Amino acid sequence: MPDDIPADLIRLGWEEWLGLPDLGLPTLKAKVDTGARTSALHAFDIETFGTARAPKVRFAIHPLPGRDDLSITCSAPIVDRREVTSSNGETELRFVIETTIDVGEGESWPIEITLTDRGDMRSRMLLGRQALREDCVVAPSERFLRPERSYDVYSARKIKATQPNRILRIAVLSREPNSYSTKRIVHEGETRGHVVEVIDTTRCYMAINALAPEIHYDGKRLPRYDAVIPRIGASITPYGTAVIRQFETLGTYCVNGSAGITASRDKLHAHQVLARHRIGMPTTAFASSPKDTDNLIGLVGTAPLIVKLLESTQGKGVVMAETKKAAQSVIDAFRGLRANFLVQDFVKEAAGEDIRCFVIAGKVVAAMRRTSAGDDFRSNLHRGGQAQSVKITREERTAAVKSARAFGLNLAGVDLLRSNDGPKILEVNSSPGFEGIEKASKKNLAAALYEEIERQVKPAPLKPKSKTAKAG
Fold first, then answer.
1. Helix, strand or coil for residue 416?
2. What secondary structure letter does DSSP report for 119?
3. How far apart are CA 37 and CA 84, in angstroms?
4. What is the pLDDT of residue 5?
5. CA within 20 to 30 Å of 385's CA: 40, 76, 78, 266, which one?
6. 185 vs 161: CA distance, rounded Å
7. What tens digit of pLDDT does each residue of 183-221 get?
8. Domain 169-261: assigned CATH number
9. How confident is the model at residue 472 (pLDDT cuts 50, 70, 90)?
């Protein structure tokens, strides 16, 4: 170091290893250019979101030149929008964000940086003179005067640990924006700093093609979302799951996938899934021909029996037949309506009670016992049932987790009965309500859901280049 430069100054070469930790970019190669007034960061798929009072921007970046297989999604509040003239004389209107620059050895400070596509540039970032502190000195003939860094931070072992919790843009697919569950999800997301938008599933329409699949809503293409929380009603399951499949095609993280929702909604399919995974449930039978009524009842056992419509929800379309003759009458009535149904054994020892286990990311985060109202055998809260927190057994916890996993659901309400020979799974709900179980358990389950979403949306790690790619 020349004698006339104080040792406490920050020396930078014309090219440096830097980091933008607030954006989840711990390592970048930047060109330091005192001839440029404004700093710039490589960005593509730039989209604004949020409100006019608090606008935000979401964008993606390939932090490694020549490696488009690693894409980091970033978001930040917008502080300005400015016209910037590049070195080749072209003027561009760019979004400006503020973030922290880390130059190593404990030195960091806030800078303003513009967003532009630098995909054809060697450096992912340009550091202009406005971003330099007074104690920075640039040596234009030298490179890498700051501590050396490695792109290894983007490997599978390290990448998720370096990613901050950023502002997310989240869609809730719901036709009931004023329902308790939808409002809780929106409120909790906004409390955590995210932007949450409620989308009416039935107003979505899709452009289905191989090159550029899209989802449109009210005449406009929907933007890119970091995550989708489906609240698909039973009456629109086929169309709702088609919309979710389109989001899956776009690569959006969906809390529950289309296949799991479809399977859990069809009670016959659901019980077949449970049976395939050897999960305990009430003995169940299904038949189509009216000639098989007596045999159908015989497969299940003696009365009383439960007869369920395959499309039943919230206890509707569920009938208890106390005698064999009553069961025959109910079955004949359902067949007369050309309705699909199944017949189940009635678990007497449950005594009008069931347990709802709330499962998030393979863990039971809350449980409540629901007790039926009066003489009603159904314990659904929508039918006047009462709920209270309950401590479940290890066997019940295992059954609930195994059931949610069988359908590939990251969020599920698993209903079970306590029988003399262990827990019996009644239903796996892919859009469980939050109100009853949050009040009964006194737990913030919406926050637990967002913790899982924030964990899931972190980028995929960089895969090592194959020997063939290296040779080429």
1. strand
2. T
3. 9
4. 58
5. 266
6. 26
7. 999 999 999 999 999 999 999 999 988 778 999 999 999
8. 3.40.50.20
9. very low
* Domain 283-346 classification at class level: alpha beta
Contact at 8 Å (CB) between 170 and 227? yes
227-230 vs 253-254, strand pairing mode: parallel
With contact defined as beta carbons under 8 Å apart, do 399 and 279 qualify? yes
pLDDT of residue 469: 43
From residue 286, how far is each of 289, 310, 342, 344, 383 by CA, in Å? Answer: 10, 10, 5, 9, 26
Q: Is the pTM of this model over 0.70?
A: yes
271 touches 345 (CB < 8 A): no
Amino acid identity of 184?
A: R
Report DSSP letters for 249-305, one per residue.
HTT-EESB-HHHHHHHHSHHHHHHHHHHTT-----EE--S-GGGHHHHHHHH-SSSE
Dihedral sign for Cα 182, 184, 185, 187, please. Answer: positive
Give residue for tokens 């490695």.
Answer: 150
Q: What is residue 259's predicted lDDT score, i.e. its pLDDT?
A: 97
Rg value, the chain, Cα: 29
CATH 3.40.30.10, applies to 349-456: no
Question: Beta 386-389 vs 353-360: how paired, if at all?
Answer: unpaired
Paired tokens of 168? 């997310």
For the chain, domain boundaries: 10-162, 169-261, 283-346, 349-456
CATH architecture of the domain formed by 10-162: Beta Barrel (2.40)
Whether 10-162 shares its CATH topology with 169-261 is answered no
Give the model confidence (pLDDT) of 6-41 as tens digits.
667 999 999 999 999 999 999 999 999 999 999 999
Q: What does the alpha-carbon distance between residue 250 and residue 244 come to, in Å, rounded to a whole number?
A: 10
Strand order in the sheet with 220-221: 204-207, 214-217, 220-221
For residues 38 and 132, what is the distance between their CA atoms, to the nearest angstrom?
A: 10
* Cis peptide upstream of residue 304 (ω within 30 degrees of 0): yes
Report the distance separating Cα 458 and Cα 72, nearest Å: 8
Q: pLDDT category, 102, cuts 50, 70, 90?
A: very high
